[in-house]
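User: I've been going back and forth on whether these two constructs are worth ordering. Before I decide, could you fold them both?

Assistant: Sure. I'll take them in the order you sent them. The first construct and its structure tokens:
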Amino acid sequence: MLLSISLHFLVIAFIILLGVVFLLILAVLVYGLLQYRRQVSIQSWTAAIDSEIADAIVNSGDVARHSKISDATHKSGFRRVFLEKLVSAEKKFSGGAGHVIRSLFEVYGLEKESLCKLKKKRPYMIAGGIQELTAMKVEKALPAISQLLQHESPQVYQEAQYSVVRFEGFDGLTFLNDAQGILSEWQQLRLLNSIPAVPQDADSKIRQWLQSENSSVIIFVLRLIRKYQLLNMYTDVLQLLSHRETEVRNQSVQSLQALENSDTLRHLETSYDLQPEPVRIEIMKAVIKMGDRRAAEFYTEKLLSSASAGVKILAAQGLCDLGMTEQLISMSSQADISAELSSIIKHALQEKI
């Protein structure tokens, strides 16, 4: 009797297990079928969208709604693909072709889709909306985008920063007044490339940003100063050689070299002994770029007295660049010279040949 009951339960368990396995297989098949249909739809949509964009550009801006495209615009997946293709195309074309692409954005009513994304909760969707509105130059979206400059997500506020600068140029940098997040290297490059010019009355704003508690803001502004050769900022940059952050000091050295005047060599030489080694290395590199023959004594002193091999290598390079090879040869032949220094000098001379 007990054996019969156990066998009965075993059969039921086996049937249930088979049912579960069948359901799992069915779920995988249904998922695969849906994914396949989705992929086929995306390929079909992509082909239609590419054709629409190409036709509009070739026909010199003759943009009109076509039924094949219009019938699909009610599908969220299609609108997503359409927006991605338009944004991608806008990056590749400019002038008249860029205007045509933006016209397609308007004709097919995709602006509303992008604006709605700004109100979503997921950061990647908000950032996507900002990218689309920026690429399509929807200036009326600027107030809404500006409100996102203080968003908690870096993905969102970085896109908002880029957007306002794309729309407003230098005037869009007002977010630097109280920027809390770190401006990444990539973000700084994007912002710099979006600023067509610096106004002549911008000195007071730039000075304010150079005093920011956010070191990445200072570094960005120093790069801005270098790019646009803002000579009026020389004294302000010089003061940053005593900043608490080493990278700010390094960027200041690079900026002083870019803004070089007759006093720059003296300023760098005077500051040298007050700096940590990374900044000393940066000063040596800057002086070499300057190619000032007055630096010969400075190079010689550092070559003979510095404890840093990196500094000695750069000092020897600097002397070579000034054409002082005979002095180096004479120095290397002295009996009391160290093996390390001799090796450094010989290496510098070989590099010069």
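The second construct, handled the same way:
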Amino acid sequence: MRVKNLILILGVIVAYLGIIVYVRMSNDRTIEKRYYQVWREDYIKNQSENEQYVNAAGKNKTPFALSEAQGYGMLLAVKAGQKHLGSQTDFQKLDNYYLRHRLSNSNLMSWRQENKKGSLQDNPVSASDGDMMIAQALLEADKVWPGHGYKAQAFKLISDIKKLESNRSAKIITVGNWANKKSHFYNVMRTSDVMPEAFEEFYQATGDHSWIEIKSQMLTYLQQLSSQHKTGLVPDFAWISRQKQASPAKANDVATKDDGNYSANACRVPMLLAASNDKEANNIVKKMLKFFKQKEEISSGFTLSGKPLYPYESASFSAPIFVAASKYQNEGYGTLVEHEKYIFSRPLPANNYYDATLIVLAALNTNELTGLEK
């Protein structure tokens, strides 16, 4: 009798735990689906019956497209496909737009398309972050929807990234094809181009070991930057010397007054590093998380010494931290995960493509949405 009662009790416990797991998974899936659908409604725009692009302008504004935005859109479409929240057609339409807006005699995408005289016109140069995300999305899409030629597309794009968007002596990805040997910016590294997971996938797909060398060297540069301050924060851009030493850019060296600060590009670094299991990448991101854990509020940017740049929070900074902290929450970062969950308690912004996209990417990249309202 006691044995039967014990079996009955154990059965009840197992059933209860199963219900808890099911409810958690169901709640997470509901939130993911809602965010992805709202994001598509706000930011996906039809170029033609068979082409779609991510409108980086947002709702009710003159639309424009970016290769970065298209890369994010394609990555989100693949992740949605993996979770049965999206279709191969969704991805194909985004891919078709990329194919139509490649640079002449190249597989690189025009970095920006602006509305001129009623149609989107291509800017004649590339941006490497967008190209790398598109290549990564194509490789993943081939796994989710095999037989559509995505892997062959990825090979061509990866080849052109190496040929036209890399500095082989410094072993870095340059900021774009325009930053060539003749350019003053040939030795500039954008810290958010340090994508160890992408480099690993490029190597696995192509067998080209130079991608491992690029990963290793760019992480070394990032470590050099991280070690210069107790915060572990890295700048948006860095200069790479002939001696292979990295130093932060100064204000307006490359793009904005915050080139040398932890700002709109570097904010993606925690998420990009956490995506890899590389030991050096993990060490760099954990040092950053220790700094963020000490802050009552994550500002929209910091100086490298840790001084807030602006007196408000921003999802584009919080979402990557949320993803990274979720990976390491059992190592003491659980409170940071809970703190940054605020990004899911507000409506998805309809006129801030960057914030909205990183929120949805965070939602599809973690399993830490339990407890949020549906």
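Notes on the second construct follow. Residues 11-27 have pLDDT under 50 and may be disordered. The longest strand covers residues 44-48.
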